[in-house]
């Protein structure tokens, strides 16, 4: 009844999640795994090829470094997606996507909708994150995280993953969320608890994908679910300053860094003041950060 699609690069993770799915999903399923260790295929291409082969009407695109803690989660997904107004389901996301490039977390935490156990490199142990201020079973959001994305096959057929603009392994989740969200609701479910054993990597490739999302969807950003049509200044500042920090950490183009520094200074002076001035000046003049 559900086709689970995984792009795999780690046999150990794949074995563990396959066993976990078997014992928790609670209904018949099809597992479609692409071993992508020795391939140059981006995740959008992998997902599109697997989805085209899927035998079931419900698709679940899943990272392999996860563990389900909720029994019968498969039936829960089917129940949620039986509402035809819902096009896409995740377990973490945000009700606001800024016009500034960045991840789904680049906004005020008031907009977060999450039900995960997340592991971080810089922290010992795990952190259970639950963001559900209105005590909902499902929360409508602007974008979801790609760790789990479930939808009907018909939705994928109408909104296939963009293999051209997103040829690597980043940005596909934000892009697909915004694409599906043009005519259906995108939601985070609080009924399924998922443990995620790794965090995102903020590389130059990730930054490029953020700018690709910005270019493609500039006509409809920012997207605000709680207050449609309204911008959120604080969230926009968070997105702008967060991108500036990522640009500095990856030693990106000096012109781009100067541009985002000036935007943080000119458009968000109340929030920013002269933050970043010293580190940006050192980088622009001497090409080092410390």
Structural features, described:
With 290 residues, this protein is an alpha/beta fold. It has one domain: Spore Coat Polysaccharide Biosynthesis Protein SpsA, Chain A. 37% of the residues lie in helices and 23% in strands. It has helices spanning 11-24, 43-53, 73-81, 153-158, 172-180, 204-217, 233-249, 254-266, 269-272, 277-286, and strands at 2-8, 29-35, 58-62, 66-68, 86-90, 92-94, 96-97, 112-119, 126-131, 138-141, 143-144, 148-152, 185-189, 194-196, 223-224. The strands form four sheets. Strands 4, 6, 8, 9, 11 and 14 form a six-stranded mixed β-sheet that branches. α5 (172-180) packs parallel to α6 (204-217), α7 packs antiparallel against α8 and α8 runs antiparallel to α10. It is globular, with a radius of gyration of 19 Å. The model has no long low-confidence stretch (mean pLDDT 95).
How large is the radius of gyration?
19 Å
The helix tally amounts to 10
Distance between the termini: 55 Å
Number of domains: 1
Any chance you could write out the topology, listing elements then pairs?
Elements: E1 2-8, H1 11-24, E2 29-35, H2 43-53, E3 58-62, E4 66-68, H3 73-81, E5 86-90, E6 92-94, E7 96-97, E8 112-119, E9 126-131, E10 138-141, E11 143-144, E12 148-152, H4 153-158, H5 172-180, E13 185-189, E14 194-196, H6 204-217, E15 223-224, H7 233-249, H8 254-266, H9 269-272, H10 277-286
Parallel strand pairs: 1-2, 1-3, 5-13, 8-14
Antiparallel strand pairs: 3-12, 4-14, 6-8, 6-11, 7-15, 8-9, 10-13
Features:
290 residues, Spore Coat Polysaccharide Biosynthesis Protein SpsA, Chain A
């Amino acid at each position: 009844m559900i086709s689970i699609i995984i792009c795999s690069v780690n046999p150990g993770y794949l074995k563990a999640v396959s066993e976990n799915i078997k014992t928790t999903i609670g209904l018949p399923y099809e597992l479609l795994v692409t071993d992508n260790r020795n391939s140059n295929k981006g995740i959008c291409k992998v997902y599109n090829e697997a989805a085209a082969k899927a035998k079931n009407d419900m698709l679940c695109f899943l990272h392999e470094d996860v563990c389900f803690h909720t029994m019968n989660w498969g039936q829960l997904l089917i129940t949620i997606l039986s509402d035809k107004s819902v096009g896409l389901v995740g377990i973490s996301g945000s009700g606001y996507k800024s016009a500034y490039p960045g991840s789904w977390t680049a906004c005020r935490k008031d907009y977060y909708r999450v039900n995960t156990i997340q592991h971080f490199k810089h922290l010992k142990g795990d952190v259970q994150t639950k963001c559900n201020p209105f005590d909902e079973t499902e929360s409508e959001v602007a974008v979801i995280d790609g760790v789990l994305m479930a939808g009907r096959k018909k939705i994928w057929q109408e909104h296939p993953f963009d293999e051209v603009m997103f040829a690597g392994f980043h940005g596909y989740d934000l892009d697909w969320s915004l694409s599906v969200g043009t005519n259906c609701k995108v939601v985070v479910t609080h009924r399924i608890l998922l443990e995620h054993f790794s965090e995102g990597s903020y590389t130059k490739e990730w930054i490029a994908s953020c700018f690709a999302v910005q270019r493609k969807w500039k006509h409809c950003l920012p997207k605000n679910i709680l207050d449609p049509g309204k911008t959120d200044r604080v969230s926009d500042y968070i997105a702008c300053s967060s991108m500036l920090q990522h640009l500095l950490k990856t030693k990106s183009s000096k012109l781009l860094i100067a541009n985002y520094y000036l935007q943080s200074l000119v458009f968000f002076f109340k929030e920013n003041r002269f933050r970043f001035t010293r580190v940006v000046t050192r980088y622009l003049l001497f090409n080092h950060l410390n």
